[in-house]
Every structure is written in structure tokens, then in C-alpha cells.
Amino acid sequence: MVPGSKESRIAEAVSARWPGAVLVLGHPFVDIWQAVKPERVGLRARPDVPRGIDIKHGTLEALGWPHADQRDIAMGWKRIRPPCAPIATWSPPCSAASRSSSTS
Question: Contact at 8 Å (CB) between 41 and 83?
Fold first, then answer.
């Protein structure tokens, strides 16, 4: 997790409230969209979305899909999500965390 981020502050608060009882796992991606293996959506590599451009807009633009507004973003996720339902389609940091949490 990124130090000082909203997520890291939440993780710290949860860990402080229930010390030793909670394991909070993060992932190295800016957005869960980056955890989708690129080949699952027809790309050779993850798009290089410049800093300052929303990752969802940049990803959809790289795919050549509509990306003008929230409706386009929602429709894009609906297209991305189904072929990625099996855990094997996610990049290792997310798939490993999912497997370990589902076996606990």
C-alpha cells in the first residue's frame, strides 16, 4: 500500500483496533483495473496511462472503447469483468491474496 494513502490509513486504523486479529493485504496497483492481465482484454501489455489521467479513462482509451463519462466507465468494466472472473486471469498479487483469503 502507498504510505499515507486512504487505504493505508484505513489499514492502520483496523490493525490498531484489532491488533493481531486482522491481516490487511494490499496490492501494487493504482487501481484494480491494472490487476487484470492485459491479454484478457486484447492488449499485449498494460496501457501506460500518464500521471494525471484517470486509469479507467486511460485504459478504455487504449482499448479504443468509449471513455467520456461515468456511464462509459461502468460499461467498460462490465466488458472487462466477465472474461476475468476466474482468479487465474488476475495478476499474481491479487490472485494470491484472493486464494489465501478464501482458504482462511
Answer: yes
